[in-house]
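Subject: Interface between my chains keeps coming out wrong

I've been trying for a while to get a sensible model of this assembly. When I model each chain on its own everything looks fine, but I need the whole thing in one frame so I can look at the contacts. Pasting all components below, labels as-is. Any help appreciated, I'm running out of ideas.
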Amino acid sequence: DIQMTQSPSSLSASVGDRVTITCRASQSISSYLNWYQQKPGKAPKLLIYAASSLQSGVPSRFSGSGSGTDFTLTISSLQPEDFATYYCQQSYNNPPVWWTFGQGTKVEIK
Amino acid sequence: EVQLVQSGAEVKKPGESLKISCKGSGYSFTTYWIGWVRQMPGKGLEWMGIIYPGDSDTRYSPSFQGQVTISVDKSISTAYLQWSSLKASDTAMYYCARRVYSSGQIYIDYWGQGTLVTVSS
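Reply #2:
Try treating it as a single job with all components included. I did that and got this:
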């Protein structure tokens, strides 16, 4: 099975900070990597798909990069509404496991 | 507008059965895979399985194979997740989610609001 490892597990940052979250796959997944944001009590929301494509309606301060096994989510200037947990997800469709999520990165207010 | 609307919260006792639902609207229900994702209290997201409403083709995560059953009634655009005998460890939030395949890329673009299942004696 493909394992996804995110780092850090949590971070504290201030409004306006640049934040970077990394995600590593246990084997190459090309660009089949997506990022989701989840706020407490809410369903996840798609931010980035195909490693670097911004989902419609998502602010441009969010960006993604990487391919193969190493990926990054960057928030260029953290806003109050960005405090949430972020998950990477591989969609490489490697049967029998279709989707694997990273363990999550919680972004908290400093 | 695409929507996935899930059934309401459930409180059950160990050993009881349960079937929760996910109704799709605003799109062609039979042409997108619907997956189920578990989130245990304070924990991350786990893929359970996925179904194609067009022909009911179903795949399960090895971690959930034999533990749950995923089904669909395409006549009412609804997918289901069911248990025959609940355990306390099934206490979690369960999400349905729509899988998109577009221009060679695969992602989840819509999620249901979640169904909280609590299993307690």
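Reply #3:
Confirming on my end. The first strand of chain B starts at residue 3 and ends at 6.
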